[in-house]
Amino acid sequence: xxxxxxxxxxxxxxxxxxxxxxxxxxxxxxxxxxxxxxxxxxxxxxxxxxxxxxxxxxxxxxxxxxxxxxxxxxxxxxxxxxxxxxxxxxxxxxxxxxxxxxxxxxxxxxxxxxxxxxxxxxxxxxxxxxxxxxxxxxxxxxxxxxxxxxxxxxxxxxxxxxxxxxxxxxxxxxxxxxxxxxxxxxxxxxxxxxxxxxxxxxxxxxxxxxxxxxxxxxxxxxxxxxxxxxxxxxxxxxxxxxxxxxxxxxxxxxxxxxxxxxxxxxxxxxxxxxxxxxxxxxxxxxxxxxxxxxxxxxxxxxxxxxxxxxxxxxxxxxxxxxxxxxxxxxxxxxxxxxxxxxxxxxxxxxxxxxxxxxxxxxxxxxxxxxxxxxxxxxxxxxxxxxxxxxxxxxxxxxxxxxxxxxxxxxxxxxxxxxxxxxxxxxxxxxxxxxxxxxxxxxxxxxxxxxxxxxxxxxxxxxxxxxxxxxxxxxxxxxxxxxxxxxxxxxxxxxxxxxxxxxxxxxxxxxxxxxxxxxxxx
Amino acid sequence: xxxxxxxxxxxxxxxxxxxxxxxxxxxxxxxxxxxxxxxxxxxxxxxxxxxxxxxxxxxxxxxxxxxxxxxxxxxxxxxxxxxxxxxxxxxxxxxxxxxxxxxxxxxxxxxxxxxxxxxxxxxxxxxxxxxxxxxxxxxxxxxxxxxxxxxxxxxxxxxxxxxxxxxxxxxxxxxxxxxxxxxxxxxxxxxxxxxxxxxxxxxxxxxxxxxxxxxxxxxxxxxxxxxxxxx
Lengths: 521, 231
What we know:
Oligomer: heterodimer
Radius of gyration of chain B: 18 Å
Distance between the termini of chain B: 24 Å
Shape of chain B: globular
Number of strands of chain B: 12
Strand order of the largest sheet of chain B: 2-1-3-4-5
Helix content of chain A: 40-55%
């Protein structure tokens, strides 16, 4: 475990420290005085060759130099010193500080003025240079941190990097907290550190509200730690906890932008790691779905292949009327083989529902087509029952997966056939309700147990006292499963006229297709 | 026997090959079996079959890939016989050029009827029928007239175009996409409800009982075919 604390300042950070005091450094005064002396000597030398009126201009050099390099006060001092020297050595009466000509007072004032203006300009330039240097220092630090983060691939690594960086830059203790089911937990930093209830409350607040909380913020300031949230993509991924060794406010106001920079970088990095993890998860789910679909399709193929042979040969036996074979047995062979086929289809369908592997391919379906196809496929099964169709030709189109709807209708018809006595009619009725389209299959059978109508759809539930009818009840479970997958609802009730049961499918308004009638013109 | 149609049966299951061979030979077809894609392609060039019954789940190659290859090498009628019941597979096979699609387990009579229709279409392909009769409906493709029981029926242009498209190949299944493309244009290939509306109108005008149609018959999730023209 790395101790996330470093008290000493890092080399190279000196320029970031506060500038020297307002009086400037003593060396400045010495250098300025030397320059004034030099100029005076030079002036005396030049003066001896002839009377030069503008000797005063020479003194601008030390004044500007001092103001530029050493600040306002050193500049003023140099200006004053220059005026005295000029007065003493060059203005009559020579070698005295008396000023005779008022014009020369002006010279003194000009030298002082130059000192003031120059020092102000220089100070401003210096300030800007300082700022630039500081911000380039920040940028370099952030860029270095970003480079470090780019190579990391777990939340813990990013947390450790952030804690180490913040601890060393600001001389504080640092922890990374991640939200969890049982409150925030420490993901990086000193993991053995125990946070008190106030700290936990502040951390919770920071994680929940995506705002800073704790010491130095507006919220839960009693907490010794300051909690800063790490937000990426609108989600709070973690919180950085920092505390000063002396229990004071952990970061100065002027350090906050840099701290925010580190936090943003780390948050982006955590966001990236989360995204990669989610993508991997999606890929895994997809792969699992693909395997499941492949397995179901393979099982389906393996079951259907022998069934194909059995069904076809049974058909041929029935058609050729083999000698010595009771025709009723041949009929039974075909009927049973077809029943087995429906059963296999239902088992596979149920496996698809249970595995969540239903792939819906919805399209606008004409219920006339759906009913006609189901009746056609079950024509052998229902040959003992008159089938009545009452589906209005102008019933609205509905959105459904035609294949699944077909299975639903097959099972409803099969069920109606199972529970109708021979000769009992099966009626398929379609109607437009106030906010839905309803397709109902009515049988003429014993009806359903009172009060238990809904139970009929549960897997393997069966009508009480009708064991003789056989079947597993899987068919009705398929009806419900497929119908609900398509957004329809299935219901069972006894017929109003008491003649039997009615099973209905309701297509809600959302599934009704309002087609443009002009398509046909 | 030498005049019999030659059928190439491609299926990796020996029982299915035997079953199809037996069924087809009893219906007076000559059968050439193949167990995989490689053998099928070899026999296709060598035996020059009139029709191919193709299973999609072959051991060495997916049957869907084989469809364009077979279509490119031969003008044999191509019927898919597969346990894959996903409508997407059927539509893909038909759009790739298969003439029909039969799902296993199949009804033997249904399979033979489809094969018969497809083979007859192949013979007639050169001399396209001018007038198609199905049930009591007469579709005159030259004069663009439709009669039911001898009485002329008025159809809108879209209704006529749709019916004529089906009537050009009676018995053949047309996918929704093919019908939409032919009648409304490729832009409308997704608007299946257009097809439904037109079919509804046509059934009301032409079917004996519009609620149990026998003329324009729907293939679940796939498309439509015109029935009743083969008797």
